[in-house]
Amino acid sequence: MKRIVKFLFPAFIFLFIFSFCVKGKSDELKVGAAEVDITPAGTVYIAGWSPYRISKGVKSPLKVNILAIESKGAKGKTESAMILAFDLVSVRAGLMLPLRKAISEKFPDFDINKILICATHTHCAPVVNDPDTVPKGITKPSDYVRSIIPKIIAGMESAWNSRCKAKFSYGLGNAAVACNRVSVYKNGSGQMYGKTGTPSFRSIESAEDHEVGSMFFWDEKDHPIAFLVNVACPAQENERHDNQYLSSDYWGDVRDLVHKKYGESTVVVGICAAAGDVSPHQTYHTAARNRMIRLRNLSDTEEIARRIFQGIEEVYPYAFTDRQDSIIMKHQHKVLSLPQRIPTKEEYERVIAENKKLGDLKNTTTRGNDRIIERYLALEKNPQPLFKTPVNVLRLGDTVLCTNQFEYYTAYGIQIKARSRAVQTFVAQLTNGCKDFDTSDPEKLNTLQNWGSSGSYLPTKTGVKGGAYGGMLRTNIVGPEGGQVLAEETLKMIEDLWK
Predict the structure, then answer these.
(1) Helix 141-161 with 93-106: angle, nearest 10 deg
(2) Which spans in 90-140 are helix H?
(3) Alpha carbon of 455 to those of 94, 292, 360, 387, 389: distances in Å?
(4) C-alpha–C-alpha distance, residues 267 and 397, integer Å
(5) pLDDT in tens, 25-63
(6) 297 three-state secondary structure
(7) CA separation (Å) from 48 to 121, 127, 171?
(8) Whole-angstrom Cα distance, residue 308 to residue 187?
(9) CA distance 224 to 201
(10) What is the mean pLDDT of residues 334-341?
(11) What is the pTM of this model?
(12) Tell me: the pLDDT tens digits for 396-421?
């Protein structure tokens, strides 16, 4: 018996080491990236405010930055993902639907549900949904969309075909970019960008997330391929300055800084984390902030980019020492059904009265009120309506990237990060909307499900109680109950990737 054990023990050790080595070799990581210019050639409507603005020129070019990732795991199993980050306010149906169709035609073997399409939420980019009328001299949004889709598809081909053996690492830095935009007053009410220098001001409404999460990808010679940078703040600084000029906002300046140090070929994939209740606009101590920007001789977006780049730079050398060419990659996609926010009878009666006062006027308020009326009347047939929404969870090594289609309030993102199984968690809002978008009838394009298809707010209980813009019933279709369901289900999906 001792002789048998003596013989078998080294054999078992050999098999264990051999299987480990084979697994390490088989988890081969391949990465490619591309940057595509989607700046319109002519005059366009600019999205982000109502009514639309008419563009007067270009302050900084608009881009879509593309990252293609593939990993061959044990037993030859392949996992993949493509990430497209647009310099747009959101990727609404006018672009999302024809783009998905073009992707399906060009990449028939690629799972469309493994492609993440998101927006940086710049407020100085073109409208992509056609309005009722477009004056002469302004490019029709659908014509703009048709002009950029071939470029995007070519960029995706370039990113996918340029895949090479790659190394991966990540790091967590910090940068004070996001500012909660809701001022809370003595009576408990909240107001978006409300005055803070008054005796009734008490606090800002909720949390801010100042993390800068970075994923780094290098080729075999350690040349940077791409940086994925996650910041919990929309790119809308330029809406306050020169807002009739097209602009990639602070992400354009971040890219310039990265290109200057790491080379023009390094693709910067800017991802907006949960940030539905924040913006770059500081509402207090603004004179001191502006003085420092002036003393540094920077523009507002350059100052924000300086901070973000510093957040990247403070982790890069340490991440570089921890490069991995073999990682676990898992990608999961689900369509969740979230409970909708239910209008009360009092809210229904209030908006009817408000619309009567406004008469024949058609604006953001009346359109929002019309949706509330539609939602309330629909409760008779369906008292517990649900809203379908896609969610992706992508594991790369000890990190995870999770998505949602909303302007998701910051507190939810912090909750997901805090409870996540991953060492570092990345959150992408405004991603992969337009689930079940009805295109059968042009007159249905503004129906309730379609309106909420990409970019509606998803507030917390605190946000609803305060009553500021993002917490208003007319700006969201899913409320705090659904927001918590989304967080819980996302965390379950993350947990599954570690099983």
Answers:
(1) 40
(2) 93-106
(3) 13, 34, 27, 13, 11
(4) 21
(5) 447 899 999 999 999 999 999 998 767 899 999 999 999
(6) coil
(7) 8, 8, 32
(8) 36
(9) 47
(10) 95
(11) 0.92
(12) 999 999 999 999 999 999 999 999 99
